[in-house]
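REQUEST FORM: STRUCTURE PREDICTION
Request ID: SP-0412
Submitted by: Lab K.M.
Chain count: 1
Length (residues): 333
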Amino acid sequence: MDRSRFSRIVDRFASQRILVIGDLMLDEFIWGKVSRISPEAPVPVVNVTSESYYPGGAANVARNVREFTTGVAVAGMVGGDARGEQLVNLLLAVGIDTTGVQRDSSRFTTTKTRIIARNQQVVRVDRERPEPLANAHTAQVMQYLEAAAPNVDAVIVADYGKGFLTQPLADCIGRWAAANGKILTVDPHPHTSLAWHGATAIKPNRAEAFLAAGRPLTDPVEPVTSDAPLIAAGARLLEIWNSESLLITLGEHGMLVFEPGRPPYHIPTRAQSVFDVSGAGDTAIAVFTLALSAGAAAREAAEIANCASGIVVGKLGTATVTAAELISGIAQV
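STATUS: Completed
RESULT:
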């Protein structure tokens, strides 16, 4: 892509208004040092030096969007616990609209705790209890969507399989996006097996793409455009989901864009170094959607998202990419 056009698209990010819908989580990082092995079991003893907390899941997608525009809102569910309150406060602290966040005292907030020692993840502890969204909560989401429609340019759906996104809600979101002419992008979770009608674009990773297409996962082939099983899986997903485009993220192999009637388009990775892949998919869907909303074609949006992902994997923890970093990365393309 021409660098000047690349930059013009990114410059328009600041005026976009994005709504993120999905499973909200709290990411907890416990940082420490390891100096010995436990006498109780062959495991390292981590001496904790600090703790940090970040929005996770769909909340991290919103946080990524917030790096580029003040017009970001999030809709989802938290429990009636201290962690839910903490998550909402983290979102509010960076200027994300939480009007669409519902609180349910019968639930507890999904929390992922990562213990890090010497920049290496020792273990991850998940606190979660996936539960399907009740009909009453689905109705509240749709009421919120109808009220928010005049102030939204695009919607990102981030499905982490925790129960917030159900087929009735997916159908409602698709109808709402079509009726209101909104860009709708989806980061799917294959185990929920939700049908997404009316989506502008859907972004699975490689393993998710094979699972959603009902095909056995195979080893990657290079060059990527010669990976016949992957190409077949992508073509099948275009048929199943009937979206305008499909973006499959391939980790160190970059990204692959599918569009009806066009050959697949491969984008090699831009990552110079990889410290942590946590949240890289969140960055990809956030920047990809911002670019589409700013007028980019699917392939252009994928190029920009690929550049952003290459930056974020060079950071440790649930990180984001700033506008300045993305512009700098563009200059090096």
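NOTES: The chain has one domain: 3-26+54-331.
Reviewed by: T.R.
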